[in-house]
Structure formats: C-alpha cells, structure tokens
Design brief:
By secondary structure, the chain is mainly beta. The protein is 6% helix and 58% strand.
Amino acid sequence: MRYQFACAAGAALLLGASAASANAPGAVEKTAEDAVFDEIVVSSRYRDENLSDVPDSIAAFTAADIERYRIERINRVASLTPNLRFSDDQEVGVSTLVIRGVRQNRGTGQPPVSFRVDGVSATNNLLTTQELFDIESVDVLRGPQGALYGRNAIGGAVLVTTRQPTATPELGLRFTAADGEDYTLAGSVSGPVAGDDLVGRLAFRMQDREGQLRNAYLGNQYVDFAESAAVRGKLLFTPNERLSVDLRGQYLDQTGGSGYFTPGSDFFLPLPPPNPPIVVDVPEYEIQSNRIGESIVRSGEISAKIDYDLGWATLTSVSSFTDVDSGNDQDLDQTFVEAIDIIVIDESETFAQELRLVSPSEQRLRWVAGVSYFSQDRFRSLATTFLGTPVPAAAQDLELKDFAVFGNLSYDINDDLEVTLAFRWDEETPKDVTQGRSETFNEFQPKASIAYRFSEGVLGYVTIGKGFRAGGFNNLAPGSNFEPGFDRESLVSYETGLKTSAYGGRLRAGMSLFFIDYEDQQFFLFDQTGTQANINVPKSEISGGEIELTAQPADSLLLNLGLGFTSSEIVEYEDIPGVLVPASQIVGREVPGAPVISANLGLQHTASLDADLELVSRLDVEYRGKTYWTLDNEDVQSAYSLVNASVGLAGERWSGRLFVNNLFDEEYIEWFFGARFIGLPADIAWPSKPRQAGVEIAFRY
C-alpha cells in the first residue's frame, strides 16, 4: 500500500510541475482582463478566502454550479465529488455516506462528516437526506475538519449555504414533471419586511411521486413512492454596520417507500415441518417482500446566528433547536414469505450552541477561537415480528452531551508561505438511560498545515490532522450476540496537494493525495433480532487521492473532470461476538463501502440564439469502479457508468429544459448486506433507480 501511495505522490509531483510550467517564463501570458472564471470564494475557515488559497481538498459548488448540475440533494453533490459516495437505502432519512473510506454509522451511530446548513449542524443523521432547495453554495471539505466544524467531522464537512434575504424584491418558481408521476414545485420570495434594516425570505419545496419500482408479488404495486413538503423562513436584521441577526425556521415532512431491498441469494427458512429446513429458490434482485413498506421523517428547526463586530474580532453566536420524529414499517427479510417484519420509531430533541471569535482577515496573523455545547435526547425502538410472533422490542433512551473548545491560527511567514495550526478538544458523554450505562470520551484533535505559493496561480500544501468520532451504546434486542457498546474511533490523516489556475483562468485544477492511519474504525451491522449495532475494527489503513479540473477551452464550452481513487487494508481484526465471519477471512481485506475508483466528466455547450436567449446542452458521465460491500470482500459490485443528459432554453427571466437521468437504464446495486454478517435468511440489496426523463420550467422576477 505504501508503495502505491509513493507512486501516486510521484505522479502528483509531475502533474504539479506541469501546472507550474504553465505560469513559468515562456508560457502564454494572460492579463487579468482575459480571465474567464470568477474566483470562487469559500469561508471554510470562517473568513472569505479564494478557494485557491485554502490548504485543504475542497469541492466547491457555486450558485451557477447548483443551477448547472441541478443540485437538490447530497447524492447529486456526491456524484460530482471524487471520493464521496452517498446512497439512499432502507427508508426515508436513512443513507450511507462514505468519504475517503470513512463510513456512515446508522441506527444511533453518527455520520462521518459535519453536515451544516447556514452554519447550523444537522444534529441527527436522518437530516442528511433532506432536500436542498433555494441554496447558494455547497462546499465539501475532505479530511478531518473537527478543529472548526465540530463533532463527527472525522472524514470531512459538508457546508450548505441557503440564499440570503434581499433588499430588492425577488420571486422565483420552478416546476418539474418526470417519469413515475413525479411532480415537484419549488419557489421563493424575498424582499424588505421593515425598511432596509429588516429583510426576509420564504422558500418552499413540494414533491409527489407515485414511483417506478414495483413489487411483482403484491400486484405490481409501486414501492418507491414519495411525498414531501418543506418550508424555510429567514429574517435578517442589520440595525447598524456592526450587528447582524439571522433568524431561521424550517419544517420538513417526508413520507416514502421503505424496505424494498431485494434478495441477493437463495435463502433457507427454518420452518417446521419439514425437517431439515427447506431451501427456497428465489430470483435474485427482484423486489418481492410480503408488504409495502412505509416510512416518515418530520423535523422542525429554529436557529439564530448573531454576528457583532468588536473591531479587533467578530463575535458570533449560533444557537439551534431541532426536533425530529421518524418511523418505519417494513418487511426485514425482503422475501415473499412472512418471516421477519420490523417497526422502527426514532425521536430526538437537540439543542446546540456555539460561540466563536474570528480575527480580521487583513492581518498577517489570523485566528479563530471558540467553544461549543451539544445536548440531545433520543429514543429509538425496534420491534420485530418473527414468523408472526412478536419479539420483545429493542428500545433505547439515549442522552448525549458534548462540550468542546477549538481554535485555528494562521500566520504568513512571507508573501508565499503560510503556516496553520488548529486544534479541538472534545468531551462527549453518551448515557443509555434504558440500560443505566454511561461513558465519557475525551479526545484532543490537532491539525497542522504548511502552504507555499510556488508562483502566481500555483499553491502547494501539506496537512496532518487527527479526526475523532465518539463511541456509544448499541440498541440491543433480546437474543442478540452483539456487545452492548462500541469504542470511539480515531484517525491520523496525512495529505499533500496542489492547486493551480492557468491560461488566464480558463483552467483550474486541484490535486491531493492522502494516507489515513485508522484505529478502531466503526462499522454498522444488524441481525435478525432487530438489533442495529456498531463494531470496531482495531486497525486499518486507507490511501488515495483526488484530481479535479475545470476548463473552458472555448467561450461556449465548459468541461468538468473529477477522479478519485482509494487503496485500503484491514490490518488488525479479532473475532467479535455477533459477527459470524472469522477474523482469518477479514484481515488483509479492503475496507468496504467506497468505490476503488470514481470519476465524473461533464460537458456543457452554450449557444446564443439572440441577445436574450441561449440554448444550453449538457452531458454528465459518472463512473463507479469496483466496490466491496462486506468486511471479507466476498460480495462485490462490479464497475458501471451512469449518463445524464439535458437540453434547454434560457432567457433573461425564464428557463426550460428536457432531461434524462440514467440515460441507458443501467441496473446496479446501490447498497448490499451479506447474510453471513447480518443473520438474515438471504443477502439483501438495495436496487438502483431506473431511467427517468422529465421536463422543468422555471421563472424568476
């Protein structure tokens, strides 16, 4: 693995040298007026900075990108971001997110990234699947980000910024109709509420979808139906130049199909008689559960962000309260026999508070200092029925508290060299009230980076950072063999990268290489009792890299290219109660969950038909390489490609387009659970979305 990492590092150095030569003497010179792209501004260090000046691997999506790519959920962001994988599976709100091999923990586990909307952390992992409507930007930060973005930022951070209220009245409306009787209506209105000091914005999104996937064993009923409604209100109060108060409220109501996994193998059914157990031959990857599953997620959130300019620093307070209620009723065995059914109830209330001071940006020494507090009460119950007989529910009342201190210090040694030191100290205490168990996890997470500007438009950096995710308690059902708790996990990430801009702004590129030394990596499993558990793998290693490129070879043509690759190994593993596969079949295998290679290519052509009308055509290709599903690497999704295409007209105040997603109707497995790991009668797999064509019309005033 280290040999592969060294080879990749050599390739990056060669690529960096090539990029640098584009700005060396003899290269074609471009003036500032010739630049094609506006500089992308990010605030990943709580201050506005050019993307090319930040020593981190960041995939940044501007308002123009969001419109161009039709970003409405994180899964669309993932399809455009190397080494980020996002899959919906099992029920509304449930997803599996993998970033650089760092995985999502489901159930009462925690996500691998800090997911923030307008600076407010999504305090429940069920909220990462929410629709992203009326948004201004999305930034994906890869690598540990706990120093600035708090708990669970072990793999990175996803920062979403919604559109701000405006002093000038604005109105927007968008309607989409697509296959599956899939209709979406979204809109926003913005303007002054009481003079220029108080402005507001109201946005909404509604969807009604009949579905495209059917259960052949239940009268061809649709299983992937969906209904959702979301509304967000914002008020921005700026009584003077020093003070701003940003108030936000949001409500989300989602209902959708649940548990339409497909069996991925023959299964045995221990029914008397006959004896021995019978073997039933079932078609692989066909939806055939004995009930139409349904799930819901309802959440409400209020938050307040207050900024006050002290002159020597800006004081920011971010307060939020979030209430989430969800439920799921599904067939767990995913076969046409009534074997195992499950009902899940998940309710939580969360309060979060953060205070931070940020120094002015114009000085040589720049710093951030802050404290944060997080408190959550969460109740989760899993009631299982086995062969028609109810099994005692696995219920857990969990209280979680986290207190943290964090800071970031950047210093310009000279005009070309910057040194950054950062840290976070967490004290997190989960308390299982149901079982009377409690444990406190403390962790210091330092981070250091050196950034050097080789020449105008070429920045190189080296970063070392530690990431942390607290342990917790499994929601055990009677009869489960899993351990009652799981330990914290931590990693040390080593990263080097280059960022370049050349040819007068017609070319932008970013390259990064990383190596992760992982201790006690957490993995999610479950069993036939209804228990959802996390286990720890003592030691693993992950290496890889990303290459991202944006180019405009002609005024009418835009090209985007992304490439991600990983190589990993489970170095140490011991037999764990509840895991039926022995350690000898796991040690030395790849860390499962992320494609070994992922790539995306986008081409957009814009033709001016007249002064106010453009014809915009776009083609996107996403390649997902071989993916290992299980710890022993026995179950593999082979490589496949997805193609999306669209063509549309855009005027000054309106636009319309025709689109088709998954153009060639590629069939693949979105997520997979091996029977030998979960104790069910058969492997189960989450099916892919079929081809979907549609039309979209938008107006703005």
